[in-house]
Structure formats: C-alpha cells, structure tokens
Amino acid sequence: MLTNLAVFIGCIVATPILLSLTPLSGKLGGAAIFLVLSTVTNILIAVSRQGVRMISDALSTSLIYIATALVLLPLGSILFTVIQKGSGAIRWNTFTQDMKFSSPDAPYTEGGALHAIIGTSLIVLIATIISVPLGILTALYLTEIKGKFESLVRFLVQAMSGVPSIVAGLFIYTVFIVTLGVRFSAFVGALALSILMLPTVARTAEEVLKLIPRDLREAGTALGATQWRTVAMVVVPAARSGIFTAIILGIARVAGETAPLLLTILGSTATNLNPFNEPSAALPLYTFTLMRTGLEVALTRAWGGALILLTLVLILFITARLLSGKKR
Amino acid sequence: MSNHIQPKITQRAVDKGASVSKDNPVASLSSVAGSTRTANKFTPGTGLETNGVHAWFSKHHALADVNLEFPANTVTALIGPSGCGKSTFLRTLNRMHEFIPGAAMAGEVLLDGKDIYEPGTDVTKIRLKIGMVFQKPNPFPSMTIGENVLSGLKLAQLKIENKDDLLEECLTRAGLWKEVKDRLSAHGGSLSGGQQQRLCIARALAVKPEVLLMDEPCSALDPGSTLRIEETIRELADSIIVVIVTHNMQQAARVSDYTGFFLSDGGPGQLIEVATTNDIFSRPKDKRTEDYVTGRFG
What we know:
The complex is a heterodimer of chains A (328) and B (298). In chain A, 75% of the residues lie in helices and 0% in strands. Chain A has 13 helices and no strands. In chain B, helix 1 runs parallel beside helix 2, helix 5 packs parallel to helix 8 and helix 6 crosses helix 8. Chain B is built from twelve helices and ten strands.
C-alpha cells in the first residue's frame, strides 16, 4: 500500500519533467505519460520483488486500476462541474420561493426552484405509486407463478426498458392529452414516467426474487401455506432489501427525465400543489427552460437546478445502499 | 462399513445397559430400541398407508409400485443408495412431489383411511397434517426464532390461544428450548446448523402434524447435533408417525422401528423389502438388502 502511494507520488512528480522532454503536451499528454509511467514502474517493482513471472500480474493490475480511473473520471468531472457552476445560485430562498414573480435573470436572492422541487417530488411519487406495485407483481408473475405468458411478459418488459423516453412521452401525450382530452398536469407526466420506471423495477425485482432459494418456498408450502401466503410472508420479506433497491433504481431512472415531461406537464413557473390540474414544473424541465434563455444568471440557476436534482438522486442511491447493505 | 459401526453401537448399547451381542452389533442396537418400546402394528384405517405409488419426473419413471404401511406412533426409516427414489417417495406422502414442475404420480396415499390425492382434497390441509423437515435447514431469514416456530400458524392462518406455551412446547420437543429461550427474538440465521435444523423441526411441530416426514435431516450436521435430533425423533414417536429418509444406516438402526429398503436397478426405484428394523439389519430376506446393509455396495 505504501509502495503504491510512493509510486503514485513519484509518477506525479516525474510526469511534468517527462512531458517537457517529449513532443506531447497538455493535460491529455500528461495523463498518457502518467499512465505509462506508473504501469511500467509497477511492473518493474513487481519483477524486482517476485521475478519475471509477475509481469502479467502487474500489468493486468495496472490496467484494472487505469480502467477504474477512466470510469470514475467523467463521474467526478460531472459532479465537480455541476457543483462549481451551480452552487452560486443556491440560496435559502431557492428552496422557499418559485419563479412566478421573478424573471430568470433576477438576482439569486429572489425567486427559487421550489415549484420544480415540488413538481418533481409529486411526479416521482405518483409514478412510484403506479409502477412499483405493477413492477413487483410482474416480477412475481415471472418468478413465482411462471404462467403461460412468462416468456412473452419477460420479452415485453425487456423491450419496454429499451423504449426511448420521448416515445413514452409521445404515447401518453397522444392517448391522454390529444385523444382523451386530459389537461397537462403532473399526473399525466407521472404516467409517462411510469412507462419508463415499470421495466426497471420489474427486472431488478425479478433478479432479486430469483436469488431467494427454492428451499424457502418449499418450507412455506410444506407448512400448509397457499402459494400466495408463502410468497407474501416468506419470499417477499426475504427479498425485502433487494426490492427496496429495485424501487430506488426505478426512481433514479426517471427522476432526471426531461423529454416525456415536456409533452405532458408543459412546465410552469408557479408552484402547483394539485397534480391533477394545471401544468406543473419539474427540476429537469426547470434546468432545460432556464438554459434556453441564454442569460448568465439564468444559466447559473439552471446549474443550480441540476445540482439539486443530482443531490436528490444521490440521496436516493445512498439510501438504497444503506437499505440493501443492512445485515439482518 | 461394519467396523465403523461396531464401536459406536457397542458404546450406545452399553450406555443403555442392554446386553450386547458380539455376533451382530447392528441387531443389538435395534434391540436396544426395541427393548425400550414395542413397535406398533399397522391397523387398517389408521396411520399412513401407500398403495401402488408410482412417480415420474416428466418422462422419467422414478418410482414404481410402492406399497408401504406406517403404523401410528412409529418411526420408519427409508434407506437405499442415491437415486433409488426414496426422497421422491417421501415427497409423494405430503404432495410436495407435485411442487416440482413436470412431476406426476399414480397410486394412493391413505391418511387415516382417506386418500390424500382424492380430487377436491385441500392440499394445504394435507400438508398441515403431514409436516416435513428438509435436508438443508431452511429457517425463514426474515423472521426471529420465535416467529419461525410459529410461522406455520400464521402461514396457514390458524388461530391459537396461548402462543407462548406452544412456542415453549415445540422448542422443547425439538430439543432446542434451553439453548434459545433467552434469545427468541434473535434471527433464525444466527443459530448453528444443527440448531437451525431443530428450529425447523420445532416449526414443523407447531402446526401439530400427525405425520412428520424427514428428508435426510442430519446429512449436513455434526455428530452432536445428529445425536440430539435422533433423540428428538425417538421422543416424537410417542405421539406421531415419523418417516425418515437417511443415507446413514447406523442412524436408521438407531432411530427406527421399521426400515424400508429402496433400490433402482437402472429403471425406476422400487421398494425391495420392508420389515422391522431389527429384521432388516439381522435377517434380511432379500439378498440385495443383505448386501446393502452389510456394506457390500452402496
């Protein structure tokens, strides 16, 4: 471990020196030199300690570290950019006021994202209420009942998870708003998000339920329970934490969706507590509309909206980790 | 195999203060069991009885024409090499066989003279009367020890007046009460393997079955836990019918009143011979039984 740290620091120090000696330049060149340098150093250390046969081991270890870093880099970069650009717009009033009486370029001490936070919360809540029971029942059909339509249902669920979000939005828009004459509202938006959320919940819950050993189902059945009671009292409780994860993954899947909401909730600058009437706001839509104004203050507000959304999703993920990692 | 049996059996016989026959240690053990109690004879219309039971897995004919009687208050051991259909047979006795997709059966299983496969029979009621303990301990992970024991009542929606008494009674009968009485609200998974298996026995007893089926209940356990469970089985035989599948012939000799020997000659498994445990181990009628119990194959 100490050696790793020493190699890391040594390579960081040596990289600028090498960079000036080679025709390479810039951040990308520095990163490339650093990666090659650290890989070679690690291999040399391994060989000097344990002999030539360790070359492949040290090489693959280095490659794994590099791959991990490459994956984490964009994630860190996104977080950093959003915080850097958005935190300026976050004030106390961001959480207590809406944009009804404030123009997008009003000072940060005026107006806020309350309407969008409430809108997103309502929409996600309704979408969860609709798609979680349906998703879990679908998963139970696939794992417990294994009915005649098992493979068809599984195929449809998989196909559904590939539906582009704008298509889900268009579908709900055409059916509810155009054909049935329902008005733009948070509820219609939630319907569109449910289409996207359902397959995520169903597939994740199915994977979790598959992990529950058949022994437990047999034990319940052998005690004189009907299949339904065995599932409700033994199988589902045993999969409880995994099902929580499925729900939260589903929420995370749709919390940031913008396209379907454009066609269903329309967007608003005022706080709307009634999900069944009048257009509503949502955080992704808030970010989108403010971005389009091109005004500098509005841009920062938009980044602020993205930051709030990111934080909400992050909180959900941490909750999911805590719930699923909790030992009995 | 017999030189493994010998010391242990002699030991147990001496413990019980019974006479030891040097010529046939196995028989001496069964006579120990026999000396403490006399096995009931079968009376038609009582106990459990099978007539011409066949079992299939899809097209595979796993079991052919098994006729067996399990008298009230007895322990019957089913022995035989792997794949001879004894576990399959056990599962036909409480209709758990049909839990496996593609499984089919033919024949009659009579409990107190009534066929449990008769159309219109409530299969959940059958399984309440004929309980089962599995090879691998399978306590419900989401429940505490106490909840596990009483889970059968909840699962089958049975009402019970005094839960605490039942809890203590079942755990005592399963030989687990002393070990867990102070931590009934701990999770079932926190127990050792042997304790978990006894918890599963207590769970099966809580719904007051008339018959308890045990599918190699000790195969995953250490000798101490095995001994403890065998004592439990002997005590259970005072009030219910126990049918136990076992790979361990010493175990069959130690706990059972009757023993059935199953064998498959490549085709479906068959019941070769059934008799009192004493007879199976000391004077088997069939050559194949003799070869098996003396350890010549299997």
